[in-house]
Amino acid sequence: MARPKVFVVFYSTYGHVHTISKSIKEGLEKSAQVDVEVYQFPETLSESVLQSMYAPPKPDIPVITVDKLAEADGFLFGFPTRFGSAPAQVKAFFDSTGSLWVKGALSGKPAGMFFSTASQHGGQETTAFSFLPVLAHHGMVFVPALSTSAGNPGVDQVAGGSPWGAGTVAGSDGARQPTEYDLAAAVAQGESFANIAAKLSA
């Protein structure tokens, strides 16, 4: 019996979400129960606008397409927060998935999320909450991060993530990088998600 296939699909402007996605992938592979493929959401901003934002070049990772999305058995979606919700790039992509919705192509498949915000209370939980309608309308099953398996960061450090999903705090200028705790929580999320995806597939 073939192992379930999990797609990690992310959008990253300055690289923070991309970094978290690597630990998500590590956790998925650590489980040895799923096959993993990594993609990024299509960019909607022009190169000139990205340059004016001082955004680094995109990583050499394939861009997801609507048809390709249907091939997965589960998903972990990663994106930065934009005013408490997913960025326009992610919304634009899912606005184009009507053909999958009509066929119920994503129905019953597990999905989780991970994030990046500029500040510690910048909306990681509301971003997850506001993205749930996308999962619900496609019939996908939301899988929380179960982040307690990565330990408790306490109150003496800045930490991203929550039970909704792993995350990091980038700082207002984007200079702050994911911490050891942030990455460990992402590994834990990937591993726990793989276990659930395998059970649902069975």
UniProtKB/TrEMBL annotation:
Domain (Flavodoxin-like): residue spans on this chain: 6-169
Pfam families: FMN_red (PF03358)
Transmembrane spans: none
One CC-aspect GO term: membrane
Domain of life: Eukaryota
GO molecular function term, any single one: NAD(P)H dehydrogenase (quinone) activity
InterPro entries, per database record: Flavodoxin/NO_synth (IPR008254), Flavoprotein-like_sf (IPR029039), Flavoprotein_WrbA-like (IPR010089), FMN_Rdtase-like_dom (IPR005025)
PROSITE patterns, per the entry: FLAVODOXIN_LIKE (PS50902)
PANTHER family xrefs: FLAVODOXIN-RELATED PROTEIN WRBA-RELATED, FLAVOPROTEIN-LIKE PROTEIN YCP4-RELATED
Similarity annotation: Belongs to the WrbA family.
Name the record gives this protein: Flavo protein WrbA
Organism listed in the record: Linderina pennispora
